[in-house]
Amino acid sequence: MYTYDVDAAAMFDDRTHQFEKFGIAASDIEDARAAITDMWTDAPGGWVYEWSRLAQRYAGAGEHRMASLLYGCAKFPCLTDAARVRALDHQLTQFLLAAKDFPVRFDRRIIAVPYRGGTVDVPVHLYSTDGDHPRRPVLIASGGVDTWKMDIHPWWVAFTRHAGVTTVAFDHPGTGESTIPLDEHADEVVAGIADYGRSLGDGRVAHFGASFGGNFAAMSGLSGIVDAAVDLGGPVLDSFTADHADRLPFGMHDILGNAMHCDRSPTVEQLTEGLQRLSRRELLARPGNAPMLVVNGADDYFVPQSDTLCFEGRPNVEVHLIPGTGHVAMSKADEVIPLVIGWLRRAFSV
């Protein structure tokens, strides 16, 4: 893992919509923006330091859910240093303290799934309306390379309450609590989590992935290892060309480099070579797939429109490229999440 050259102010330009959508007050975001001058220093003015200071204030007041959200910002965008690892630990502590007040049943488990001839432990978060998992299908779900399972908690709650599913949230390889890199072996881990979902619920399993998680949901849906899949803003094809990788904004080149467990910034050629191992070109060339919903914003600067539109014309695939919004259509999440819920309900005839 390594640090890299990135402007802290630019990160606010990129992510303020996301932080707000997940429940952080605009005033707290503005306070952090005013205080932060550096992404990496662990001192006043540093990203981790200032977000953690805000989180500590909420934790001291017993507002554990908000403290968890703010520690989630503190560890953003990747675990490049000890300070961010500590922030992730604090986020988990506050999240578990907040769990008693969640509007759904919550359980944290460590499951072992196949990986490269052995197994790897994967922490998962289970959300259900009543704890009776065999009564309903399971939705396995993950986020992107810099936005992880605890950060996306509001969506997991919404899916669980309204889509008729038990939600199993996880950090895919290269992110969050995962200990293994983002590479071509990651598919095996995702398949193992899907198998766990089948054994947990009524035998039916769907896969939701946002951002890079959408890449894995696309893999699951195209290969048919799940019964339904939702790809929200997933890079699958043209995102992995050298030309596109060379133009990634807001430090995404190095966020991906860290997810791949590089020890220094990869060249464009090295990054492209690694990402090509997760291209879904071969799967897209095959006929057949599980029912799929593919959605993204038309103005995404991380993922080209072609990575959404390449699904058009496939059987049992619904495609939406939403105008006036960007990556994962975050600024229109209030429209997109109900769209996903309605689609999941139809997919499982809830």
TrEMBL record:
InterPro entries in the record: AB_hydrolase_fold (IPR029058), Carboxylesterase_BioH (IPR050228), FrsA-like (IPR010520)
Matches recorded under Pfam families: FrsA-like
SUPFAM superfamilies: alpha/beta-Hydrolases (SSF53474)
Name the UniProt record assigns to this protein: Fermentation/respiration switch protein
Originating organism: Mycolicibacterium litorale
Lineage of source species: Bacteria, Bacillati, Actinomycetota, Actinomycetes, Mycobacteriales
Gene designation: frsA
